[in-house]
Amino acid sequence: MQRRDWGEVPYDTTFDAMRRFTEARTPDTPDELWLVKHPPVFTQGVAGKEEHLLMPGDIPVVRSNRGGQVTYHGPGQVVIYPLIDLRRLGIFVKEYVFRLETAVIQTLEHWGVIGFRVNSAPGIYVNLADPFAAGLPTGPRQDPFEGLGKIAQLGIKVSNHCTYHGVSLNVAMNLEPFLRINPCGYAGLRTVDLSTLGVSADPAEVSERLADRLAAHLSH
Fold this sequence. Notes:
Layout: E1 2-8, H1 11-24, E2 32-37, E3 41-44, E4 61-63, E5 71-73, E6 77-83, H2 86-89, H3 93-110, E7 116-118, E8 121-127, E9 148-159, E10 162-170, E11 190-191, H4 203-218
Parallel strand pairs: 1-2, 3-4, 9-11
Antiparallel strand pairs: 2-6, 3-5, 6-10, 7-8, 8-9, 9-10
């Protein structure tokens, strides 16, 4: 699997490049991982509702063809786009999403953070009461996100069994822009990064470790 680190690239430029790559690939095209950083941008998924864009202000909004609702990308966030032929790998979309999330969970483990899934809400979350020792809160709760913070976002597109878009993991960001939206379509959902949790980590190192875990789970 080829790994490409593109550095900081505008979102729409990367979006166009991923789409062209996927449209041009053949059954023999090697899979790739694209490591990128984006300037501040809000992106809307195909089902994105305008009501979830609260106060975008001076940050541009780009409509994308990935799944999901609105999210934010910006400096201090690790973004990786796996360009994978699922048919050749022998898995379906549900298993692909599971593997993406597993790679994020394993990456967080390296920094002592426990990440976990929430049913019907793709991405990875932490227990804000104790992100280093506590998993998903137990007991009845009216709000499924009570006490939780979202630390990683997923959004994918599958075309002719080939994937693009991918995963973003918050490392050391200005989190204020997340307050301008309903993150991933959930009003009041708190977004966190490793820095918020008291973890000092180099985004470049986090990116490399996440890329390693993705390659391990997505290689033939």
